[in-house]
Structure formats: structure tokens, C-alpha cells
Amino acid sequence: xxxxxxxxxxxxxxxxxxxxxxxxxxxxxxxxxxxxxxxxxxxxxxxxxxxxxxxxxxxxxxxxxxxxxxxxxxxxxxxxxxxxxxxxxxxxxxxxxxxxxxxxxxxx
Length: 108
Description:
CATH 3.30.1330.40; three-stranded antiparallel β-sheet; two-stranded parallel sheet; 30% helix; 12% strand
């Protein structure tokens, strides 16, 4: 049985989806937009947007009672490969050293 994960520490869903789903032995988070949930603002630069998106994922993971150390897969979408560096930089700072090479997908 699945359970919806919802937190005020990540942006509310802007469509017909939920922030995350707890499946019992794993959780799945929806893709996160770079909106600050407290202000509703989007940071101006790409690096700050990547940071905000990942902070939103962290908030959903923590709302499920887990830690970022429990993340085992990361799927990211960037429109340009040069922007991926900013996202990777923040991802490395967020995750534990042993998680820095998680399976991921890059769509171009």
C-alpha cells in the first residue's frame, strides 16, 4: 500500500501529482522545480536553482523519515550539459562521499 508524502518544506505540486510516494520499502519523489517553498521565488542563477531543486528533494526525503544518505538513485534533467556541472557540484555537497556516483540519467 502506498502513502503520499507531503511537506511544506518543498514546493506544492503545481499539477496532478504529489511530492512523493512511500511504497513501504522505498520512496519515490517527483521531479523538483527550483522554487523556494517559503517565498515562492525562483533563484536568478542556474547554480542557485540547482541547489534549490536538490534542497526540495532533501525536504521530501526527510518528510518520509529518511536522510539523504538513504538515496540510491538520482534522475536529473538539464537542458544544456554545461548546466549539469552546477547541479553535480551541489549534489556532491549534499550527499555522503559513498553516494557521489549514484546511477543517474542525463537527458539532452
